[in-house]
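Supplementary Text 2. Reproducibility record for the structural model of the 107-residue chain.

All settings were left at their defaults, and a single model was retained for analysis rather than an ensemble. We include the record here because the model underlies the residue-level annotations in Supplementary Table 4.
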Amino acid sequence: MVVKKRLRAVLIPLALYSVSGLAVGYFVHHAQSGQRGLEAKRELQVEKARIQASLDKLREEREDWERRVALVRSDQIDRDLLEEQARVMLGRVHRNDLVIVLDPADR
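Retained model, structure tokens:
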């Protein structure tokens, strides 16, 4: 009888500590690598940075296009821009222009 009481006195707290330790381990594991865990947060921050860089690039491109459109819309059209667009559309070059042909695979 005495042995059973001592065994229970040791095993019951040991079992409770083990169960509570497993529960804490479960929650810590999911806090680290779960769907809404720390690793997922880092991945979202990396994706956010990539998207922000893309957005900044697109904003710069839009500002460039808005500036070019403003040059065309004004009362007096910018002659350089008009000549550049005409050359692109007609596929012509000036005799003093230097043409460098790039391989599409290099881009």
